[in-house]
Amino acid sequence: MHPLLNRERQKKAKDYNTKKHLWSLITAVLEFTVLICALVFHFNIILYKAFYGISPVLEYLIWSAVIAAAAQTVALIPSFISGYFLEKEYGFMKQSIGSWFGDLGKGLFLEIVLAWIVLMLFGWVVKLSGMLWWAVFAFVLFLFQGLLAVIFPVLILPIFHKYNRIEDETLTTKLKSVLDRAGLKVLGFYREDSSKKTAHDNAFFTGLGATRRIVLYDNLIENYTPDEIGAVIGHEAAHRKRNHIVKLMFVNLIETLLISLLIQFFLVRYYPEFFTGGTAVLPALFAVMLIFGAVSAVLQTAANYLSRRFEYEADMGALKYTGNKESLMSMLAKLADRNLSDAYPPKWVKLFFLSHPPVGERIEYVEKSNN
Ligand SMILES: [Zn+2]
Question: Could you state, in order of their start, the residue ranges of all structural domains in the chain?
Answer without folding.
Answer: 7-159+243-368, 163-238
